[in-house]
Each structure stands twice: as structure tokens, then as C-alpha cells.
Amino acid sequence: MKWYEQNYVNRRDWILQxxxxxxxxxxxxxxxxxxDFMNEHRIPIDLEALHKKSGLSLERTDSVIxxxxxxxxxxxxxSAKSIKFILNGLFETDTARNERVLDNSLFDTFETEFGRxxxxxxxxxISEWNRTMEKKLILYALREASAYQHLKITYIDKILSxxxxxxxxxxxxxxxxx
Length: 178
Description:
By secondary structure, the chain is mostly helical. It is 63% helix and 4% strand. It has helices at residues 11-17, 19-22, 26-40, 47-54, 58-70, 88-91, 94-98, 104-114, 120-132, 135-147, 153-166, 170-174, and strands spanning 75-78, 83-86. The longest helix has 15 residues, at 26-40.
């Protein structure tokens, strides 16, 4: 299963967090978010439905869809029973791979330290930290929690929040400034 298919990944949040890297204009952004929403809720998608929901003209809707297909962000598959709008290309871009959206080694480290598999909420929180903080700092917070035998995501989150508020970096921690 690919990282963006995991149930703890909020695809729309990821899209919004990476807009500048994806190079989507406002109409393309609305269309991508709408398609992702409709796919998640199993709402049938066609040009008419996208036109009505987005508020764009039918011609403009068609043009935006064509642009998304040209960028290889969107694939449209037609079968005898339905038409599928697939956004996998959006998440498989080099940008997505380079952003380290999910770091399996970080998950493995937490699972080893906790002595159990992580819950979906814990994986989502770790994924969020990984996008916004230095990996070393996350591991130092895990080390602190382990030293005090408080192996809970909420406790580690408090440590990281406190360090963030104080502006502490991994280098600061290594130099004893925490």
C-alpha cells in the first residue's frame, strides 16, 4: 500500500500543505480537493457534477480537468460501469517523494521503543512532526520520554511543543541547551 493510501494520511491536508510545490492554481486546487472529497465519499464523478459543485462553467471545468491530466496529476479511467478520476499522480510526484511525508524508520523506532504497534492516530501525529520538525529532535524527545518512562505520544508532543516554543534545535539539544 502506498503512503497516500494509508488511512491515517489526510490527503487534502497534504495537498494544501504542498500547494506551492505542486504548482496548482486556485481553480486546479478547488478541482483536486473536490475530486479527492468525492472519491473518499464514493460520490459518482463526472464533468457535470464537477461543474455544479465547483461553480465553474462547464467549459472551464473541462479545461481545468485537461490541465490536471496534462500535468499527470489526474488520470481518468472509463469502464462500462463508471468513470474513475484518480489523483495518484499528484501524490507520486518527485515532490511527494522528496518531502519525506512518511518515514518508516521513524515509525519503526517508535514501535520498538513503545514495544507495540502504533495506532493510526499515533502514526498521523508522528507524520505531522516529521513534516514540521527535525527528525533528530523528534528522536531526542522520544529519548526524553523513555528516560522518564512516559512513553505516550501526548507526552512527547508536549516536549516537542515546549522545545519549539523555546526555539530549541537538535544542535541545541546536543549542546545541552534544553
